[in-house]
Specification:
The chain is α/β, with parallel strands linked by helices and 339 residues long. It folds into two domains: 157 residues, Rossmann fold, CATH 3.40.50.2000; 160 residues, Glycogen Phosphorylase B (Rossmann fold). 42% of the residues lie in helices and 16% in strands. Helix 7 runs parallel beside helix 8 and helix 10 packs across helix 12. The chain starts with a strand and ends with a helix.
Length: 339
């Protein structure tokens, strides 16, 4: 059975990869890179660097193909090591600016991007690698995320994200406050935990204080981490992706599959996900779109919910994602055999 080594970069972030990895396990013998560390006085740092590089080389050597989820801190050293097997990587967003200039792309056989925008930015720097690139969107399980019908409109607005300034939760709270001042009764539901490692705790506190200052305690709910997101999304009428930067928001795809009306700030790549009519720039545009949807007829709301589900079905089915990634892997393996 073909052996595939799997490397999870971005400090071990599995969030977008679990279903893809499960599919890989169905087709290949998989091995996940899990470096060992040593606690030795005085030599701790040097010994661990030496051990880390040795384990990385061994992993590259003993597999028929190596798959790097995130083109980041693991791919960088691996791309400069002796080549033994094809390397496939998946690039999400910020790597194109931070890590791409540090990687030896001659040793990478296939590069998967989650959006057309990220691919364009990469090719601006490395145009001669265009032949090894492909765009494969993130995917969601359409059997798990489904619309709940019938759904009465209750002006429930949802955000599903960690508390990080890039997500612009603070600004969303302000906008909901203005919608309430206009005589409507919106309710903002925010699911997601604090940023891992204790970073940006001040941002979370600032949002709590803003809710109090605006008198929105009854209009904004902070849920913390939500395990059953598919159930949580079924109460949401309008899903909001208010970030100023995303690779391709999986929570947005899940919301669309759940039949939520989705609005997105104009982060690069949003046009790959939602219709142009659902993208906004300035906060007053979001305010206007929220009210316009609230004022739309029942049949118009039904149409929009059906549109969101249809887009998710056509473009973001996890089965299409895993199938396309499988094809890329097989292409890389076939070149290895022919070589």
């Amino acid at each position: 059975m073909t052996k595939i080594g799997v490397f999870i970069g971005e400090n071990g972030h599995w969030g977008f990869f679990r279903e893809i990895f499960a599919d890989l396990q169905n087709h290949y013998q998989t091995h996940v890179f899990q470096p060992k560390t040593y606690e030795v006085p005085l030599l701790h740092g040097r010994l661990n660097r030496w051990a880390y590089e040795g384990q990385l080389r061994a992993m590259l050597k003993r597999n028929d193909l190596c798959f790097f989820e995130w083109a980041s801190e693991l791919l960088k050293p691996a791309s400069f090591m002796e080549k033994h097997a094809p390397i496939v990587t998946r690039m999400h967003s910020y790597e194109v600016h931070v890590w791409a200039p540090q990687i030896h792309w001659e040793n990478v056989d296939q590069i998967i991007f989650v959006s057309n925008y990220i691919r364009r930015k990469f090719l601006e720097q490395f145009p001669h690698h265009a032949h090894k690139t492909s765009v494969i969107y993130n995917g969601v399980d359409l059997t798990r995320f489904q619309p709940k019908e019938p759904r009465d409109f209750r002006f429930n607005i949802g955000m599903l994200c960690n508390f990080h300034p890039v997500k612009r939760i603070y600004e969303a709270v302000f906008t909901v406050g203005k919608v309430k001042q206009a005589g409507y009764r919106p309710h903002l539901h925010i699911a997601g935990g604090k940023w891992p490692g204790g970073h940006f705790d001040g941002y979370y506190v600032a949002i709590e204080r803003l809710i109090e200052k605006l008198g929105l305690q009854e209009d904004v709910t902070l849920y913390g981490h939500v395990e059953e997101t598919q159930t949580w999304l079924q109460q949401i009428d309008i899903f909001l992706s208010n970030s100023y930067w995303e690779g391709q928001s999986v929570s947005l795809l899940e919301a669309m599959a759940s039949g939520c009306y989705a609005l997105s700030h104009f982060w690069d790549g949003a046009e790959d996900v939602v219709p142009a009519a659902c993208i906004y720039g300035e906060d007053h545009e979001l305010y206007e779109k929220l009210i316009a949807y609230a004022e739309s007829s029942f049949s118009e709301k039904c149409w929009w919910r059906a549109q969101m589900r249809e887009i998710a079905t056509e473009k973001f089915d996890i089965r299409k994602t895993t199938g396309a990634i499988h094809t890329v892997i097989e292409t890389a393996l076939s070149k290895r055999v022919s070589a």
